[in-house]
Specification:
281 residues, alpha/beta, Rossmann fold, eight-stranded mixed sheet, 40% helix
């Protein structure tokens, strides 16, 4: 078993009882997905769906004709559709697999500090392409639900953040994920990238900060470089703006105000970016 994947399985298992605690986060994510261009009667794809504690599947099925859930963890998806009472819905389709396609090679790096340059070249080549999963796209709406931080965590767990190769691989994972999201969206459709970027494990006051001070508090955390690797909200936004390679494919890019994601023992601050894929001429 891939030890990097096992970490994600353990996280999913531990977070299953947090449906009630995640109410605010779920309502925010689900509400935005229901209002995006292309939502009504369209096809939705969710990358990193996991236990779906951040998705109200029954509400989404009132809007979308199909909901495709993608995750590494089959048991998490099985739990999600059973727990939300949609296991008999033909419109809910589950897809299981490694979103990066480089999980096995990253695990090899973790197990062998002296891995050859050939292994790194293989990882770089794999990450230069979009997800290897054969998804039935394009979709009217594609959502990434707090999975980017987990994909980057695989790199952290594989080689450590002080390794000279870390920044290159982290940026490659992030770039690949953005390309995957954008390329899965049909022209004229919409995307929604949701990412946790700091938790109460490193910011103990996160749970106690009142809502009216929340944004200011997060700004202070970001200024002090207290955030997860590679998911500073400003950096996430920059992937779709200015001279970024994907900027020419998207429009109406909007960063939402940050919100909280309660996981019981931990609380996270979350950023959300909505955008549209430019229609074909």
């Amino acid at each position: 078993m891939n030890p990097l994947f096992e970490e994600e399985y353990r996280f999913n298992q531990a977070s299953r009882p947090n449906w009630d605690a995640a109410k605010q986060h779920r309502e925010t994510v689900t509400g935005n997905l229901k209002r995006l261009p292309g939502a009504q009667g369209g096809r939705l794809c969710v990358l990193g769906a996991g236990n779906c504690n951040d998705l109200d599947l029954k509400q989404l099925l009132q809007v979308y004709s199909e909901v495709h859930l993608v995750d590494l963890d089959q048991s998490a998806l099985d739990y999600a559709i059973e727990a939300q009472g949609v296991s008999g819905e033909a419109a809910v389709v589950c897809h299981v697999g490694d979103l990066t396609g480089a999980g096995q090679q990253l695990a090899a790096l973790a197990q062998d500090e002296n891995s050859s340059e050939a292994v790194l070249d293989e990882i770089r080549e794999r990450l230069s392409r979009t997800t290897p999963l054969e998804l039935p796209g394009p979709f009217d709406v594609v959502c990434s639900t707090c999975i980017l931080s987990q994909l980057i965590l695989q790199v952290v767990n594989a080689i450590g953040e002080t390794d000279p190769r870390f920044e290159e691989l982290m940026k490659a994972v992030r770039a690949q994920h953005y390309r995957t999201v954008v390329e899965l969206i049909t022209p004229g459709g919409a995307g929604f990238i949701v990412s946790d970027f700091v938790s109460s494990e490193s910011a103990a006051d996160l749970k106690q900060v009142p809502d009216f001070q929340f944004t200011q508090y997060l700004s202070q955390l970001l200024s002090s470089r207290n955030f997860f690797h590679g998911v500073h909200p400003g950096i996430l936004l920059a992937q779709l703006q200015g001279n970024a390679p994907l900027a020419r494919l998207v429009q109406n890019v909007e960063m939402l105000p940050p919100w909280r994601w309660d996981l019981g023992a931990r609380q996270y601050a979350v950023a959300g970016i909505r955008f549209e894929r430019i229609p074909e001429a």
